[in-house]
Each structure stands twice: as C-alpha cells, then as structure tokens.
Amino acid sequence: MQQLIWEAEYECMPREDLAQLQLERLQATLNRAYKNVTCYRNKFNELGIVPEDVQSLDDLRKLPFTTKEDLRLNYPYGMFAVPLREVVRIHSSSGTTGKPTVVGYTRHDIKTWSNLVARFMTAAGVTHDDVVQIAFGYGLFTGAFGLHYAAETIGASVIPMSSGNTEKQIMIMQDYRSTALVCTPSYAITLADRMEKMGIDPKTLSLRIGLFGGEPWSDAMRREIEERLHISATDNYGLSEVIGPGVAGECQGKCGMHIFEDAFIPEIIDPDTCQLLPPGSVGELVLTTINKEAFPMIRYRTRDITSLDYTPCSCGRTMVRMKKTMGRSDDMLIIKGVNVFPSQIEEVLFAIEGCEPHYQLVVDRKGALDVLEVRIEVTENIFFDEMKKQKAFLEMVEKRIESTLGVGATVKLVEPNSIPRHEGKADRVIDKRRL
Ligand code: DLL
Predict the structure, then answer these.
(1) pLDDT in tens, 152-199
(2) How far does the centroid of ligand 1 lie from the alpha carbon of residue 237, in Å?
(3) What are the DSSP calls for 349-389, one per residue?
(4) Which of 63, 214, 240, 418 has the fewest CB atoms within 10 Å, counting from its CB?
(5) Which atom of ligand 1 sits closest to the CA of residue 244?
(6) pTM of the model
(7) Ligand 1 pocket residue status of 306, Cβ below 6 Å
(8) CA 368 to chain centre
(9) Which of 145, 237, 264, 328 has most ligand 1 atoms within 8 Å of CB, for mutation?
(10) Where are the beta strands (DSSP E) in 4-74?
C-alpha cells in the first residue's frame, strides 16, 4: 500500500508503458510551460515550434535547450509557471559565482519531491525502523530538506542535525543510535577521521547505511567509506534546478543510479556540438521534468558528464541507470590537451597505500601550457620517512597518474592535516589561472 503512495509502482513498469506515460506528461508540461513562461514561449516561437508539434518522444530533440544563463536572465521568478501565491517553498542553487538561481515548489511539487527521494532511500535500504541523521546544511540548499521530508514520508525517525559541529554529530550518532547517515561523501570521510582521532570504533555505532550525494566521488572513495564506517554507502544524484536530490539513486546492486523516468526524461548530448549521442555514450546529461508544476525544466543542460545504461538491473527496476558522474564539464581540466576530471585523479590516489583521502589539485599556466600539481596528504609514517623513501613514493604516484590519465603531474607531499576538511561539498581545485 505504502509503495503505491510513493508511486514506486512506476519503477518496474514495462518500458513501452513508461514511454506512453512520459509522452502524456511531456505534452502536458510543454503546454503549461508555453502558456505560462515567457522565456519558453519566446524560445519556441523563435524556432517556429508549438507544443502540439511534439507527437512522440523522439520529437523532444526538436525543442530548444535551457541553460543556467536562461535562469540567470529570468532571475528571480521569471521561469516560474505558476503565480507566486501557489508556491509554498523557495530554494536556490549552490553556485558560488554571480546571482544564484531560484527554484520554487507548489504543494504538489513538495509531495512529488518527497516521494522521489523516499524511493531512492528505500532502494538503498532505508525503512521506517531507521533513525536518519541528516548532516546536510539546512537552508537554501535542497539537500537537507529533500531528504528530511522523504525520511518522514517513509516513517523513519529524522534527526535534523544539519552540517558541521563534527564532534557533536558523532556524539548524537552514538547516543541516539543513528542507523542512516545523510551527507556529502567528503563529509563522511571527515566524520571517519574525527572518530579515529576521538578513539571511537565505528563498529560500536548503530550506523548501517550511508546516503551520499551532492558531489562527484569515486568507487575507491566508496570502498574507503564503507570500510572505515562499516556501512553500505550509496550514491544519489540531483540538482536544484531540476528538483534537488531525487533525480536518481542507487539500488543495493550499486551499479549505477536509477533515474526516475516517470518524472524526468534524460538525454545525453555532446557538450560541444549539442548533438544527441547514441545510448551508452559518455556526454552531458540533459534533463526534462515531466511532472513538476512550479518550475518545469525543458531540456536543461546539467553540465554533468555521465552515460546511461539501459541493460536490465538485478533489482527488477526497469528505469535506466546513470553512471557515477565524472564531474561537471565546467570542472574538467585540460592539461596539455588532455581532459582530466578531479574524480579520475581521486580514483588513482585512493588505490595507493599510504595516501590519505585528502588531496588538492593546483592548476597553473607555465608559458602556453597548463600544468597540474597534485598535493596529497600522506600517512604520518610516510611523511616522516627518510627522503629516499619519500622520493620513491612520489615517483610511483606520478607514474600511476601518468599511466592512467595519459598526462604528467607534479606530485607534492604535504603534512598530515594540512588540507582543509569539508563539511559540505568539497572544493579540491585551486585554479591559479583564474586568480
Ligand atoms: O547538490 C542536490 C543534491 C543534494 C543531490 C543532496 C544529492 C544530494 P545543487 O547544489 O544544485 O544540488 O548541485 C547540483 O551537484 O549538477 C552535480 O554537478 C553535483 N552532484 C549532485 N549529486 C551528485 C552525485 C544538489 N551524486 C550539482 N554525483 C550537480 C556527482 C553530483 N555529482
């Protein structure tokens, strides 16, 4: 019964039925957006398109893309498809430059959102018996409220701890016997480090599941978190412009995040040419919302680089899976002509014994070339080892980076605890070219 309340019945739908549902919802969304949002109407008119031109899902490709720039130009409420009096919640993107983007939800949207997040939390193993500690910051960021409402929808007990205050966070985890942890993967590492320092063995806690999202993280980092916190760590993805968390989440098979296709239509495009790419290709994820009222997004360019996997999943869900994202195209570094994502370097570092999970990338320009320095914290043992051993270690790390990524980097060892720790999303790149 509960499953039906959350609309989870869509998750195992035959794909032909899903396509029919998507088309009906898409047509209704396009009609509302065209009628109520000047920006969409103008874009459609420029191309000579009306919503009735979309008669099949393939027709989606005729439609114009929406970008962050469109949201900026229509700041704050220009993209809303309902009057403000119907909006019950306002959130904002976590962008650090320029004006933030503003997103709104009707009462119905809040219910849709809670159901979607409840679905990935359930897929990850959360039940009404869980005690869910939310360590995302409460505020304009969508992370905390998104998971909070969903955990309540499931009937779990929610601890709205918010971010930071790491020692208190750990004390509450112990005393209130939290079983599920919600935060960014980098904060999970910060928590593990602090527990180690405080002499607390995570095995003595009740924690069993981690629901991590909001930033890219490698499989190597997942293994590290799972081992150190003794939990099952799952990934979930979303972005405020589209809904917040609740776009996609992993099931317990952990082989990609199921995108909730009854609410979003995903496409993969080449970020340079904007051409649609065939199934399985790596490219930029484009999302269209099909059941949101206040803030419909048509072909929104997420800038996130991933690929879609349509092969059947052992869990029985028929919804497509997106691979862990490599990061945003804006975060991609081009070093000596080679495209490098910080998450690829993370994968290499985490596989090396003696590297702590704390690193920083410094990009600079020497003459006409971009150069990369990888700063890594090392275990106390290696740091205090004699110079010869340190040198051999550095050479080994540099070789691994070069052979995996095809580009050279200078590796520098830094003192234990010298790289800033993260309470929310990690910021690991110092780009001196932009200073
Ligand atoms: O980070 C929404 C969210 C909150 C998702 C909590 C999951 C959990 P924004 O602040 O708008 O919204 O940032 C969205 O963060 O475009 C991605 O680049 C990145 N991102 C989010 N989740 C993941 C993930 C929230 N699981 C931007 N893996 C997105 C990789 C992610 N990147």
Answers:
(1) 999 999 999 999 999 999 999 999 999 999 999 999 999 999 999 999
(2) 5
(3) HHTSTTEEEEEEEEEEEETTEEEEEEEEEE-HHHHTS-HHH
(4) 418
(5) 2
(6) 0.94
(7) no
(8) 34
(9) 237
(10) none
